[in-house]
Design a protein that fits this description.
By secondary structure, this protein is an alpha/beta fold. It folds into five domains: 2-67 and 663-690, no CATH class; 73-191 and 619-651, Rossmann fold, CATH 3.40.50; 195-294, Immunoglobulin-like (Sandwich); 299-510, 3-Layer(aba) Sandwich (Rossmann fold), CATH 3.40.50; 518-609, Immunoglobulins (Immunoglobulin-like). It has 13 helices and 35 strands. It has a nine-stranded mixed β-sheet, sandwiched between helices.
Length: 694
């Protein structure tokens, strides 16, 4: 370590420090106080040094320290520990790991730091043969990208990737840019296996009770020319349908479509399976699981409009994006409309009530049912009637004047989970037409969008809602939604931001209030096999204050009616309960707790999916590994030639890298200087006491 001294003022001040120390020592020791002149000079020297040093430290000099270290070169052994590595047996993998262990030992002896990284960001410090090959997917790009991030700025020179080259998640690693050489060690068989598999099975996520719906299966075969196979569709172990496929060529791809239905509500589990053939390499990929949510009816929305308008088509496009919604559109004709006799979950009144009160009777009849309402104001809206019917805002305007405003998102609105960055697109959208006048918010109203005139921000609401009253309501105080959607598409080639905002506002207004005292729900609707299933628990008293430390009993039942029971107690610091080791399938749960002297119940369902990515493709991709090595300046090896990799790395061993770190500290902060001054003063005081002076 090298140190240098820096001054924040002129070094000539050091002379003044010495003069002050000399004057102090001369004034104190100019006369002999009963000891020898030699002792007098010694004591004056102690005082001179101590005082001069203290004065020097008051100048606040700086000390610059430079520390230089030699960083050893580093090599990472990246092991693809996915299930496909051992699908043909563990023997070849163990031989490769044994050779890699010898490589690690030899590089360590040569002064090269070696670490081992596997999929899932796990480091291995022990024997490589102890690595479990149980990862259900292979994301080699993430593996190499994680190494690049972890060793950024460090002396990482080479990465040895031991893999079969099968990447079934993420991007291909050949698309990445790496600042190290990747030496690929190829394992596995590059010859396609004799196999039949269900490559994919797709269906709509939602279907309706009693309706027919299709399930499409993709069947792939290799090496079974001239033979046929049976493909079966099952539900809960019960066969629903079967079809036969013929393999006319060595490699075939065929699509089958099953038409089926369900008479049960909730998530239903269907399985498409091709019956095993003799001589297949593996039967793990012979089936695919499909989970379909069977629902009984849709959320019903009525849109009642005064006259035809482009905004009506815009609302229709937004609402029909959600398959759970059913929309009825009615236009007034001489003050009346043919409205179906349904119980609606939301009513959208476009320019109603109007300024001529032509639709007053029908509007009154709709509002008597306390159905949630979204009012959309326009040029023909009757503001006086509107003010008497809505609990959101009061608008005072005269003369039918309008104003052109843009929308500005209210950052204080927290009821919806929205991306604030995306909502900045409203600054670029065209203005909408709103009534010109004074706006007054009613108690309990929350503003989603404020009006902005040009660059001037106003305190007038453009989109607001009130969910606290007897009837939940929202108001869109302008017309021109269709222009917003067109402009957003012109800017982004999508219609996501405006649509998502309106969809969520309508959902928030139309959602039925949950008054349950016990609420238990999984953190997600779907989990993968091997994952822990997490449940959140909320408990309330009669005035809806949160409760804790009440025991909860949970029963989880699978498709075969086998029930598992659990007991847990949520606390204020931990309301989550986790269950592990659940096999694939659809599960329904029932939680009970005693609250306020009554037994409360919560129910729900979730899915455990089995990930079969590693069984879909079993053919090693050494071509990709060769390309990756070539791109990064590395070489491709197999197990037999792995010993030559050690020779190459040690022969071309890079030099250690020098790294320097610099520190700049105030000299007065050095502790040893404090103790030096203290020692000088103590020795001087001790000698004076010893010779009888004070």
């Amino acid at each position: 370590m090298r140190s240098e001294l820096y001054f924040q003022s002129s070094p000539w001040w050091i002379l003044l420090c010495m003069v002050i120390g000399g004057i102090y020592a001369f004034a104190l020791y100019q006369k002999n106080a009963g000891w020898s002149s030699r002792m007098n000079y010694l004591l004056s020297a102690f005082r001179f040094i101590a005082v001069s040093l203290v004065c020097f430290l008051l100048l606040n000099p700086l000390i610059r320290s430079v520390r230089t270290l030699t960083e050893k070169p580093k090599v990472v052994l990246a092991v693809d520990n996915s299930e496909s590595m051992t699908i043909g047996g563990r023997g070849a993998v163990d031989r490769a790991l044994e050779a890699a262990e010898q490589l690690r030992s030899r590089l360590t002896e040569e002064g090269i730091e070696v670490s081992v990284q596997t999929l899932g960001d796990s480091l291995v410090s022990g024997d490589l043969k102890s690595i479990p090959f149980n990862q259900r997917s292979s994301d080699l790009s993430q593996l190499l990208g994680g190494i690049r991030t972890a060793y950024e700025g460090r002396n990482l020179t080479d990465v040895v990737l031991i893999s079969d080259g099968i990447a079934n998640q993420g991007l291909s690693p050949t698309f990445g840019r790496y600042n190290f050489a990747v030496h690929a060690v190829g394992l596995g068989d590059t010859i396609p296996k004799r196999d039949v598999q269900v490559k994919d099975a797709v269906a709509n996520k939602i279907a309706y009770l009693g309706n027919q719906f299709p399930i499409q299966a993709d069947i792939v075969s290799n090496g079974f020319q001239g033979r046929s196979a049976v493909v079966v569709l099952r539900q809960n172990g019960r066969e629903l349908s079967r079809q036969t496929v013929s393999f006319s060529r060595p490699e075939t791809f065929q699509q089958l479509t099953f038409q089926t239905s369900s008479s049960q509500k909730g998530v239903q589990h269907f399985v498409v399976e091709v019956l095993p053939q003799s001589g297949e390499f593996t039967t793990r990929n012979n089936k695919r699981d499909i989970y379909i949510d069977i629902i009984d009816g849709k959320e019903k929305i009525l849109m009642l409009a005064l006259t035809p308008h482009p905004d009506i088509k815009a609302f229709r496009s937004i609402i029909e994006k959600n398959e759970n919604y059913e929309l009825d559109i009615r236009i007034l004709n001489n003050g009346t409309a043919d409205i179906p006799d349904k119980a609606y979950d939301l009513v959208i009144l476009h320019q109603l009530p109007d300024n001529l009160n032509s639709g007053a009777a029908i509007v009154q009849r709709i509002l008597q049912k306390n159905t949630p309402v979204l009012f959309v104001l326009g040029n023909q809206s009757g503001l006086q009637s509107f003010n008497g019917l809505n609990p959101v805002m009061q608008v005072t305007a005269g003369g039918g004047q309008t104003d052109k405003v843009t929308g500005r998102f209210n950052a204080d609105f927290r009821q919806l989970n929205l991306d604030v960055q995306k909502l900045t697109i409203f600054d670029q959208l065209p203005p909408v037409s709103v009534p010109f006048g004074d706006y007054k918010l009613s108690p309990g109203t929350e503003v989603v969008l404020w009006q902005q005139v040009g660059s001037v921000r106003t305190s007038k609401p453009l989109l607001a809602l009130n969910a606290r009253g007897q009837r939940k309501s929202a108001v869109m105080a302008g017309e021109g939604l269709w222009e917003w959607r067109l402009e957003e598409f012109a800017l982004t080639d999508k219609q996501n931001v405006v649509d998502e905002l309106l969809q969520k506002v309508m959902q928030l207004v139309s959602i039925k209030e949950d008054r349950r005292k016990l609420r238990v729900y999984p953190i997600r609707n779907e989990f993968m096999t091997g994952e822990e299933v997490g449940f959140e628990t909320e408990m309330y008293n009669d005035i809806y204050e949160k409760l804790y430390d009440r025991p909860v009993r949970m029963e989880i039942t699978n498709e075969r009616s086998i029930t598992r029971s659990y007991n847990y107690t949520p606390t204020a610091s931990n309301t989550r309960f986790q269950v592990s080791n659940l096999p694939e399938g659809v599960y329904r749960f029932r939680a009970t707790a005693s609250l306020n002297g009554r037994t409360e119940t919560a129910t729900g369902e979730f899915i455990i999916r089995e990930q079969q990515l590693e069984a879909i493709n079993t053919t090693a991709d050494h071509l990709m590994l060769r390309q990756l090595s070539q791109q990064t300046g590395g070489k491709f090896y197999n197990t037999a030639s792995l010993a030559s990799l050690a020779d190459n790395l040690t022969r071309e061993k890079p030099a250690g890298r020098l790294t320097s770190s610099e520190e700049l500290n105030e000299l007065i902060n050095l502790r040893w200087l404090f103790f030096l001054v203290l020692l000088l003063a103590a020795v001087e005081w001790g000698l004076r006491k010893y010779h009888g002076a004070y």
